[in-house]
Design the sequence.
């Protein structure tokens, strides 16, 4: 007599299917509330009343969730629900009691799980460039944990956290763009050579690592600027070698190029920021809104639409979402350059950001 195993395997769901819409919903609300709260237009929770709270929720709240959705893959529903619960507890805790021990503990639990689930996969990679993602995720998790404990700690960590995110965007953005371009040419029966550009990818990772080490060691401004400048030049060389002008009819590809170009420009501006406060100020929003915001929206929209329709250009709403983010990025980047129009530009950028993420939510609904 044979025994039949009646145990059922846990139902799995792609993490991005839940995490991407949650991140978009938070993006719609968090940024305008924090900006309006800092300007004194609205009473907002304590965690959104300062620039540090604004930065914390941008980098270690919303961006953390997008990175998780991109990297985690299929997960059992109970695990994913628990992960979301930890993220929500960290958000509620930070909004109500910013920079406190409970916030740090919830953030630490979520960050530890992300590292536990993702890091071993990259450590097992054969190429060092793929393995480099493991320490990047570990550093991002450490920064996420410590940033929620104290405002002074966040102040010291912010520059380091931005470089860690820049390294992640450099790698992940390139690994999205390269196969996208290869697929474009394959449809025309042309094989694309050196699509990843391994030498430039390696040079970018090394220069960003060096810049982070020099920053942590508090090296001279000149050395830090040189490392950041080299990283920015590498990003632009990689972008130009992809010959972006050849894809002018493909909006989905052009959005990715804009985000990657913003990353390279932000690194060059950070290098100049050692000698020009205005360049440093512009660099922050070029990196966070121009690079991070545009890459997040374009990649989330692309992954979702391609999975549903097998065509990245199947929905106009996906292009509208990214176009609004691009417009918002340009407005926010130029706001410090034109002090007389600063507030109108900030308000317009805020509106574009929220409408862009609202459009992204509509994309998710259409692809449900």
Sequence:
């Amino acid at each position: 007599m044979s025994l039949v195993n009646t145990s059922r395997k846990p139902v799995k769901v792609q993490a991005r299917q839940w995490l991407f819409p949650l991140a978009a919903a938070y993006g719609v609300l968090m940024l305008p509330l924090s900006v309006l709260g800092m300007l004194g237009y609205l009473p907002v929770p304590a965690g959104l009343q300062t620039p540090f709270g604004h930065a914390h929720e941008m980098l270690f709240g919303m961006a953390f969730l997008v990175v998780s959705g991109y990297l985690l893959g299929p997960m059992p529903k109970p695990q994913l629900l628990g992960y979301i619960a930890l993220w929500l507890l960290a958000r509620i805790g930070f909004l109500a009691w910013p920079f406190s021990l409970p916030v740090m503990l919830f953030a630490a639990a979520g960050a530890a799980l992300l590292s536990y689930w993702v890091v071993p996969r990259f450590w097992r990679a054969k190429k060092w460039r793929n393995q480099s993602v493991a320490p990047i995720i570990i550093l991002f998790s450490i920064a996420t944990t410590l940033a929620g404990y104290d405002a002074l700690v966040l102040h010291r960590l912010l520059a380091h956290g931005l470089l860690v995110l820049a390294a992640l965007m450099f790698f992940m953005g390139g690994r999205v763009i390269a196969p996208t371009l290869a697929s474009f040419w394959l449809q025309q029966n042309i094989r694309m050579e050196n699509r990843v550009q391994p030498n430039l990818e390696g040079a970018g990772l090394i220069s960003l690592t060096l810049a982070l080490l020099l920053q942590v060691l508090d090296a001279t401004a000149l050395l830090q600027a040189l490392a950041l400048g080299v990283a920015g030049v590498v990003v632009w060389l990689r972008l130009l070698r992809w010959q972006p002008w050849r894809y002018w009819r493909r909006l989905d590809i052009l959005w990715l190029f804009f985000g990657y170009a913003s990353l390279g420009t932000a690194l060059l501006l950070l290098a100049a920021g050692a000698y020009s406060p205005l360049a440093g100020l512009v660099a922050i929003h070029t990196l966070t809104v121009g690079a991070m915001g545009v890459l997040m929206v374009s990649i989330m929209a692309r992954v979702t639409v391609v999975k549903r329709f097998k065509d990245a250009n199947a929905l106009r709403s996906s292009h509208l979402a990214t176009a609004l983010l691009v417009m918002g990025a340009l407005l926010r980047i130029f706001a410090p350059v034109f002090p007389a129009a600063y507030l109108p530009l900030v308000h317009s950028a805020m509106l574009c950001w929220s409408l862009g993420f609202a459009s992204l939510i509509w994309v998710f609904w259409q692809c449900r």
User: Anything to note?
Assistant: Strands lie at 12-14, 74-76. Confidence is low (pLDDT under 50) at residues 1-6. The chain has two domains: 12-149, 159-368. The CA atoms of residues 13 and 266 lie 36 Å apart.
